[in-house]
Amino acid sequence: MGGRPSSPLDKRQQQHLRGQVDTLLRNFLPCYREQLAASVLRQISHELGPREPAGCQLMRSKKLPQVREHRGPLTQLEGHPPRWQPIFCVLRGDGRLEWFSHREEYENGGHPLGSTTLTGYTALTSQREYVHLLDTLCPVSSGEHTQEESDPLLEMPVNFPLFLQHPFRRHLCFSAATGEAQRAWRLALQGGIRLRGTVLQRSQAPAARAFLDAVRLYRQHQGHFGDDDVTLGSDAEVLTGVLMRELLPALRAQTLPGLRGARRNLACAWTELVDAVHAAVLAEASAGLRAFQPEKDELLAVLEKTIRPDVDQILRQRERLAGRLRVEVQRPLEACLHGKVDTQLSLVTQKLLSTMEAVLSAVQNLLAQGMDRLSRHLRGSSSGTQLRKEVYSFGEMPWDPELMQTCYREAERSQGRLRQLVVPFGFFGTRSLMFGAQDLAQQLMADAVATFLQLADQCLTTALDCTQAAQQLEKVRGRVLKKFQSDSGSVQRNFTRGWLLSIFLPFVLHQLEGSCTAELLEFEGDVLAVGSPALTVKGIYKDIVQGVLLQRIDGDEEAEAQRGTRPGQPGSGTEVQPLCPLPPPRTFCS
Fold first, then answer.
1. pLDDT tens by residue, 83-99
2. CB atoms within 10 A of CB 359
3. pLDDT of 569
4. Which domains does the chain have, with CATH numbers?
5. Above 80 in pLDDT, residue 29?
6. Which pLDDT belongs to residue 265?
7. Residues contacting residue 100 through CB under 8 Å, at least 6 positions apart
8. 232 and 120 in contact (C-beta within 8 Å)?
């Protein structure tokens, strides 16, 4: 949308960006290698350590996280000069948005007019809010005059707009035909944005964990200790976001004074320029990470072979060094926690617990309603085809954005108050936190649905009469809800514990940075003498601080849990009735 900047990126600018990416990778990859070693040690020690109590009660859904494909006609503000044009839009299951000239072009396998991954976008449905956002992109200083030109956004008010805004990429402006279509697209797009954003957070692979830790360590070296939403996206997208944040102030200072025209046209020109810079950085970052991939694979294999045989000795040496270092840093660490963390820890803990409790309660209510609805259809349906259709709809509940919105909304409601509590600690990742809660809601619903369908398919056989079948299905319902409640407790605790660490650990490390430097330097030689790449002074130090902080968190969370309540089990809401006729075998097989 809007006019393009008068001077697109030339070869000199592209070369400059290539050099910036090379510098980033040169400084980042050593952190990544270091964290890969630490991540492999962590995984092996976890595998060989004492077995934890029984974990999930629900069976794990075999369906990968996905977005339900959504498609339909929209109009798009596009062209030079911009005008509204009819298109046919398709949201793919992997969170990629494509648009075609018309439906037939899509159905015939034609190439799209355009496409984008939804990582980092925000979906807006208010035209006034979006126009205000454009005004803030290029603020006018006092005494400065800008030209006033016609603006299609103002001349032609849109009844059902859909704006996709990104801090570093070209904005996308769409319009739906009805309010119902607008809502459906908004929910679908929000699901795609979340799916693309949390790809690394959902992964348990050592490389993914190491990458996120390396990004945090790299940014701490740059002076950024607090977590924010920069880690949303793929590895290349994350590194691109890191560099764009570094480049943006200078780019803004160099470019904006030279742009002329109406303020909103300037904003459109600015977004076009930033989009070009982002695309160039992303291409170079992707190429750099691809080039590093063979080395990373080889390094992981070598680390596995060298760490696993000596893991016990490495862990003993780490504990010995940690014990000595703990004595040195205990006093300033306790002073920091007592003076700056303890007073707010219980408030943040309570807010996280209540947020996740509301989310899980909404999931449980939705699950119970789905099981009851399926039970009613089973009792009243004489059509095997209709019953299979209802079973399919039940199995698709976790991927239905309209149904799941009641759960997702509970996570969104807490953002404002939570942001007020955590910003003083340098934490700006409330969007990542909200996405994490929504991902857990979807995964837990998927696991519960898969468990119900499997248990129901196992117990409902033609050997049962109607009364026995009804009793069996009620037992399945009760078993699933009990398993759900058990898993909900674990999910709530792990969610709260993990995000409290994300909020407070960087803050504490930053507060102690000056007071513990001398102690860390004294231990540098002892750690190097061990000769393991998985052990570093800063890694051991971070583990010490994290361990002490976790003791505070666990004690505070236990106190909050004793004062609060877990999500309760909703009643069945229906009376048990004979199930006639019985379904064909494997009707409930998901």
1. 899 999 999 999 999 99
2. 30
3. 43
4. 11-49+202-307 (no CATH), 70-137+156-198 (2.30.29.30), 351-502 (no CATH)
5. yes
6. 73
7. 87, 88, 89, 90, 106, 110, 112, 113
8. yes
